[in-house]
């Protein structure tokens, strides 16, 4: 009540409902009348109640079922619909009315679905929430993976689909001398059949999106040894046939092992590397004579080794280092130095004494070995010493006519007053073969003689003659007293 606490005639009292209540009667003022009474009014306060909330289509209300002042009702779009206004609640006001709300819930629509290559869609043509589309690969294609179902989601978007459709290419390609080792509908793996090996190229065939095979490019070649037809040429070169890719280079390791049955201490062991792109590689070696060799050639990439055995023949002996002398002494001492290569095949040295009496003949290639006892009466050519190589280390000194025996030959004293030529012959024996090389070592003078050599002209020093005679020829020398 609102009044001034006066109760005399004409006084007024105003009535106001408490908060949460409203006047449901008539009038809200009472007056003090002349008869000393307040006039009667129908003022009546009732609790404010907003009643049932506003109904909004395609929504559901979330509230505690009270509709008094301050009560709040929340609206939520039902499944398949979504809020387009953004405001989703109303409140019971002091006026007993729910506040105005313009909520609208529209149906979820995912719209037209995606079209995928090489796939058809199976669905009911509905685009609302929960609608499902199944993608199926077209005829001639198959599903190679991925998800084939797409569903319309509450966000209004179709779910992601990842189906992969690949073409069916039909029969797999046939490659010469190959077989299929693995296959599925889109890929084939080939390998060469037994007896053949792959020669470059790709070993898989792939089915493309157009239904055509991208055929493998592998080539199958007959397996052949990477090294074949190994031959030994001119006693120094090796040649073979190489089975490899035309343009590729191959690395070879050449191992040489040589031995001599007649010389146990001898050994010749070497290794060489060769890189070649040739189909017929060749390597030439500095080989030693009268030697049994084993050659092993390995193709390093293929790890294949081919072996060949061969032997080198006997060659003319190597010339020793000698000093030609012209002496007038009954016991001339002569000197030689063996060729620096101690692996030379010389068997022994022979020293000939050639008296210059009348007409004499000396044949370096003759196998006759006349000794002093045989030639003593005729005073002809004889061997005065034979020295085996085992008795010669690096150099040798020999005194001609010292009266000793050398290799079974008597080194007879030279006769005073006579002229001699001392001839050195190097002899090599091996496997039934024999090679000789002769050198004029010295002239022992007693009287004056001239030497004439058939088919040989010694211009300059006698050492040039000796060197020329060691080139593999046999000469017949004629000596005549003048």
UniProtKB/TrEMBL annotation:
Key words of the record: Disulfide bond, Glycoprotein, Membrane, Repeat, Signal, Sushi, Transmembrane, Transmembrane helix
Give the stretches traversing the membrane.
Answer: 456-478
Q: Which domain of life is it from?
A: Eukaryota
Give compartment(s): Membrane
Q: Which GO terms describe its cellular component?
A: membrane
Q: Which PROSITE patterns match?
A: SUSHI
Q: What InterPro entries does the entry give? A: Fn3_PTPRU, R-tyr_protein_phosphatases, Sushi/SCR/CCP_sf, Sushi_SCR_CCP_dom
Q: Which CDD domains match?
A: CCP (cd00033)
Q: Keyword Glycoprotein: yes or no?
A: yes
Ranges for the Sushi domain? 1-47, 48-107, 108-167
Tell me how this protein sits in the membrane.
Single-pass type I membrane protein
The answer on whether this UniProt entry bears the keyword Transmembrane reads yes
Q: What is this protein called?
A: Sushi domain-containing protein
Q: Which organism is it from?
A: Esox lucius (Northern pike)
């Amino acid at each position: 009540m609102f009044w001034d606490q006066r109760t005399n005639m004409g006084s007024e009292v105003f009535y106001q409902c408490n908060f949460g209540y409203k006047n449901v009667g008539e009038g809200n003022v009472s007056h003090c009348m002349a008869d000393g009474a307040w006039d009667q009014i129908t003022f009546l306060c009732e609790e404010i109640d907003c009643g049932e909330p506003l109904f909004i289509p395609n929504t559901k209300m979330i509230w505690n079922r009270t509709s008094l002042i301050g009560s709040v009702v929340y609206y939520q779009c039902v499944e398949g619909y979504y809020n387009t206004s953004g405001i989703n609640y109303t409140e019971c006001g002091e006026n007993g009315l729910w506040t105005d709300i313009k909520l609208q819930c529209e149906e979820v629509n995912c719209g037209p679905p995606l079209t995928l290559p090489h796939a058809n869609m199976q669905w009911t043509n509905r685009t609302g929430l929960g609608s499902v589309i199944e993608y199926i690969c077209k005829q001639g294609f198959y599903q190679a993976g991925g998800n084939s179902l797409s569903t319309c989601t509450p966000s209004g978007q179709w779910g992601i689909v990842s189906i992969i459709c690949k073409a069916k290419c039909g029969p797999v390609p046939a490659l010469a001398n190959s077989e299929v080792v693995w296959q599925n509908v889109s890929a084939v793996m080939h390998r060469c059949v037994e007896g053949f090996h792959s020669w470059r190229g790709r070993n898989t065939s792939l089915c493309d999106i157009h239904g055509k095979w991208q055929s493998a490019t592998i080539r199958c070649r007959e397996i052949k040894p990477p090294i074949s037809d190994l031959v030994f040429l001119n006693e120094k070169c090796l040649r073979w046939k190489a089975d490899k890719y035309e343009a590729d280079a191959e690395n070879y390791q050449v191992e040489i092992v040589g031995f001599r049955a007649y010389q146990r201490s001898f050994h010749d062991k070497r290794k060489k590397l060769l890189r070649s792109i040739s189909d017929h590689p060749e390597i030439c070696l500095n080989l030693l004579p009268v030697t049994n060799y084993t050659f092993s050639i390995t193709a390093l990439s293929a790890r294949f080794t081919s072996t060949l055995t061969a032997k080198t023949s006997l060659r003319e002996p190597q010339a020793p280092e000698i000093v030609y002398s012209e002496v007038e002494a009954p016991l001339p001492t002569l000197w030689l130095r063996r060729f620096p290569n101690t692996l030379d095949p010389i068997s022994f040295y022979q020293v000939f004494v050639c008296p210059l009496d009348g007409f004499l003949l000396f044949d370096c290639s003759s196998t006759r070995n006349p000794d002093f006892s045989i030639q003593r009466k005729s005073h002809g050519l004889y061997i005065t010493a034979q020295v085996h190589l085992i008795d010669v280390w690096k150099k040798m000194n020999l005194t001609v006519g010292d009266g000793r025996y050398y290799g079974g030959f008597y080194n007879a004293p030279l006769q005073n007053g006579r002229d001699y030529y001392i001839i050195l012959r190097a002899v090599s024996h091996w496997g039934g073969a024999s090679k000789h090389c002769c050198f004029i070592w010295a002239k022992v003078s007693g009287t004056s003689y001239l030497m004439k050599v058939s088919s040989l002209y010694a211009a300059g020093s006698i050492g040039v003659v000796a060197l020329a005679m060691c080139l593999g020829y046999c000469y017949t020398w004629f000596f005549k007293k003048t």
